[in-house]
Amino acid sequence: MPLTLTCPTFAEGETIPVKHVRDGENLMPPLKWTGIPEGTQSFVLIVEDPDAPRGTFYHCAIYNIPPDREGLPQSIDTSHDNALSYARNDFGNGRYDGPEPPVGHGPHHYHFRLAALDVPNLNIPAKAGAQQIWREARKHLIEEAELVGVYER
């Protein structure tokens, strides 16, 4: 069974609810995954917007997620879960910041990407950005799952 990422508040290709966007409640969507591949020692989750005007914009990076986790809860400030590590997103924050595309720019596609890794943790500097985390994670990738939501203002 392949690694699969789902969200109970929106399905693949659907509109991301306002409660999960930055000018809404900015709640990180609850996420669940199944089909954890053999040999997984940790996970990394990133949220990125490749439709951003200046190139891919990173909204969240959570790394060193323990291999026994099967999801993440909805939360406005997930940085209080000591079992997880957060990289700086492109807003400069070490947390989830939801979609906030420019007004009138059209629909943006937000990619929630989960990577199963063959290492128990990534030794990354505390000030690392989301893009750096994702680059390092790709070096240890066993399998990846993706969920895409859409939002426009």
Note down, in words, how this protein is organized:
It is a single chain. This protein is mostly beta strands. It has a single domain (4-11, 20-151), classed as PEBP-like (Phosphatidylethanolamine-binding Protein). It contains 1 helix and 8 strands. Strands 6-4-3-7-8 form a 5-stranded antiparallel beta sheet, with helices on one face. Strands 1-2-5 form a 3-stranded antiparallel beta sheet, with no helix packed on it. The N and C termini lie far apart (37 Å). It comes from Paramesorhizobium deserti. This is Phosphatidylethanolamine-binding protein.
What is this entry, summarized?
This protein is mainly β and 153 residues long.
Largest sheet: 5 strands, antiparallel
Mean pLDDT: 94
CATH topology: Phosphatidylethanolamine-binding Protein
Strands, count: 8
Radius of gyration equals 14 Å
CATH C-level name: Alpha Beta
Helical element count?
1
Shape designation: globular
| Structure classification | mainly beta
What are the segments in which pLDDT stays under 50 over at least 5 consecutive residues? none
Estimate nothing, just give the exact number of structural domains: 1
Sheet-strand content, in percent, reads 25-35%
Organism: Paramesorhizobium deserti
Pfam families: PBP
InterPro entries: PEBP, PEBP-like_sf, YbhB_YbcL/LppC-like
Protein name: Phosphatidylethanolamine-binding protein
Please outline the helices and strands:
Layout: E1 4-6, E2 31-34, E3 42-49, E4 57-65, E5 71-72, E6 85-86, E7 108-117, H1 130-138, E8 141-151
Which key phrases capture this entry?
Phosphatidylethanolamine-binding Protein; five-stranded antiparallel sheet; 153 residues; mainly beta
